[in-house]
Amino acid sequence: MILRLLGYFFLCLAMAALAYDGIRMIADNGRLAFTSLEQHWLNISPASMEAARAFTDQISVYIWSPLLMTFLVLPAWVLACGLGTLLYLAGYRRPRPAIPDGI
User: What is the value of pTM for the model shown?
Assistant: First the structure.
């Protein structure tokens, strides 16, 4: 149940990010541009991004650049949709089979 709710939450985030990109496209006269998760993070809280980078650099320099930046440069709606789908499917249960009346 919790995984499905988290899945719905991330799917709603994906729709909001896609709507944001659609509004930007309309405002830019049809120029197709997707906003990366890194750009959203920088717009919301640049200090926390720098803190996360400093924290990962303390562990290993190779965590931030090749590993995390691979995901941060993707469009935000792609990541949120993928994560939401995976969480929803992880929490999905098959419905119980219907037992006919009379048995």
Answer: 0.80
Over residues 27-50, the pLDDT tens digits come to 988 888 899 999 999 999 999 999
CB contact at 8 A, 56 and 63: yes
Going from N- to C-terminal start, the domains of the chain cover 1-33+76-93, 36-74
Packing angle of the helix pair 37-44, 76-91 (nearest 10 deg) = 100
CA atoms within 13 A on the CB side of 63: 9
> 33: Cβ–Cβ under 8 A, 6 or more apart, which residues?
21, 24, 25
CB 37 within 8 A of CB 71: yes
**40, 51 in Cβ contact below 8 A?**
no
> Residue 75 pairs with which residues in a beta bridge?
36
